[in-house]
Amino acid sequence: MKIAVLSSHTLSLLWFRMDMMRDFTEKGHTVIALGSEPESDWKNEFAILNIEYRQLYVERNGMNPLKDLRTILALHKFMKEERPDRVFAYQAKTVVYGSIAARLNGISEVFPLIAGLGSILRGNGFKKNIIKIIMKFEYWVACKCSKKVFFQNHDDKQEFVQYGLIKDDKTTVINGSGVNLTKFKPAPMPQQPTFLFIGRLIKDKGIMEYLEACKEIKSKYPEVRCLLVGPFDSNPSALKIEELTPYIARGVIEYFGEQSDVRPFISKCSTYVLPSYHEGTPKTVLEAMAMGRSIITSDAPGCRETVIEGVNGYLVKVKDIHGLTARMEKLVINHDISENMGVESVRIAREKYDVKIVNKMIMQTMQL
Description:
Residues 6-152 form the Glycosyltransferase subfamily 4-like N-terminal domain. By secondary structure, the chain is of the alpha/beta class. It has helices spanning 10-16, 18-26, 39-47, 65-82, 92-104, 118-122, 126-144, 154-163, 207-220, 241-249, 263-268, 283-290, 321-333, 335-352, 355-365, and strands at 2-6, 30-35, 52-55, 86-90, 110-114, 149-151, 171-173, 194-198, 225-229, 254-255, 271-274, 294-298, 313-316. It has 15 helices and 13 strands. The model has no long low-confidence stretch (mean pLDDT 93).
């Protein structure tokens, strides 16, 4: 079969969907990946993996209706010319516009993934409420155009059902994007207590809470390391460089920017920290678990599924800097707990989040 995989972010195809696309091709299917970056930059990298890459004009965070219309027309043209047998789409714009474009061309085998509801659907305020109404309608249309819709946690699925955007029997919940256990293997724990945050530097990821907690921890335990990996972003809640600079200048944070391979940084930490406000299922947490790290994350949709409290890590309330600091301090004082929790993280990753198990469920649902 010919399978189209749609994303509004090319790097996301490599980071989150490459194992899935590779499993598609190993089954003998043809895969065409659509992303936002130029074909001249990425075509060869995908071709090595027997995947065809096409550029799609799409603005991930823009609100310009004319630019969105251009995206819809581009997707409509693609569907008309290529006639894919299956369409897998994720990220808001490609989910909505890809599903509509497919249905307009008589393609019913459409399988979107709702990988977290994002800051808009969970936000408040007059402007956000207007956008929320528009996005709910768009998601309702996309769900109508789809055969099955994947969710990465039950909270998000239930919200869609309660909003009336989809019927329960049209949903499938999978355990995130899974983690490649061949690539992410247990690594020796550093002797020095070290915390790590990986992700886009947006406030909805809990970056400010992490920075403030690190400042408190470093003031009491100067020997502790606090690492930060990830790019600045165009998201409305993005951290500005001038907001991060003081933490770097004072030695609170060691900032390493965006990295194509996060394994060396996970190896450097004893505890992985992600105090996000909401997620689908955070892939970086799964990668840290597979490498044998204790986890501190928020008791929020998508995050809470990854931690068994007190077993492989701790859950803290959203935006609770004091609670986050207390849990980090506990693991500084009792460093051996991190090692025991890391062992449990590996067990859970293998039992629940193996990418092969996740991809098998996706392929069964898509009848591949």
